[in-house]
Amino acid sequence: VLQFARFVWSGFGLTLRRLGTAVVDLAFAVYAWALVLLIGVPLWGVVQLPVPRRVRWALTRAAGASLSALTGIHVAVDGVFPPPERPAVIVANHASFVDALVILLASPAPLTFVTSTELGSHWFVGRFLRRLGCVFVHRGDAGQSTDEVAHMARLVGTGARLVVFPEGSIDGSPGLRPFHLGAFAAASAAACPVVPVGIRGTRDIVRPGTLLPHRGSAEVFVGAPMTPTSDDFAGHADLGERARQVIAGLTRGPQTS
């Protein structure tokens, strides 16, 4: 009887600990989202003002740094992005919807994010992203992709530093998924380097398929620039695979075919 009682008590204690952990996690998530609203809504209004893009970027980065500090989510950076006067296509793995915020915190100077038209069509989010200078591309439309690759190449040709997540959308499974080649075609057409970036830790902060943030830390590893070899499909595929291999090493994660 005593042994059975101990068994029951042990199971009850485990349930209580799990319940306590769930309550703490939920409380943190509510706190984090409250901060997002308190910081994000005024920021949205400020970036609509007619101020230079570098000012809008600096304000957004300061707001992100405040959110990071108040939630205790630390972002560490290893390496440096190309300076503003050197155009490049920056490609990174995509494990969580906070990846863009992490890269924003890692770069003092403005970058040009490439994201989906789905976000651009959202009234609130789209207007904010446009004020930061984001570029919107369609998914799964070959004709549109050709035009958009040319547009990205022109932006790089004018000195932009593009940030692309070549995996496309976020997936719940771990590891790198195959890369779309648009970013590498744009880099090849503009004859500019590709900079591979590995992001760690964001999947644990906001897991794919959920909107509940958790305490954690993120790391950004900036790799060495990679030079395109040729502006044709074989060259794009080669550049994409080389970048994927480097990012796999930077993230220390398994790959998925």
Termini gap: 54 Å
Secondary-structure-derived class: alpha/beta
Which spans of ≥5 residues are poorly predicted at pLDDT below 50?
Answer: none
Strand content: 5-15%
Descriptive key words:
257 residues; alpha/beta; seven-stranded mixed sheet; globular
Structure in words:
This protein is an alpha/beta fold. 52% of the residues lie in helices and 14% in strands. The protein has a seven-stranded mixed β-sheet, with helices on both faces. The protein starts with a helix and ends in a 6-residue tail after the last helix.
Secondary structure: elements and pairs:
Blueprint: H1 2-47, H2 53-71, E1 74-78, E2 88-92, H3 99-106, E3 112-116, H4 117-120, H5 123-131, E4 135-137, H6 142-157, E5 161-164, H7 182-190, E6 194-200, H8 202-205, E7 217-222, H9 233-251
Parallel strand pairs: 1-7, 2-5, 2-6, 3-4, 3-5
Antiparallel strand pairs: 6-7
Helix pairs in contact: 1-2, 6-7, 7-9
Brief overview:
With 257 residues, this protein is of the alpha/beta class.
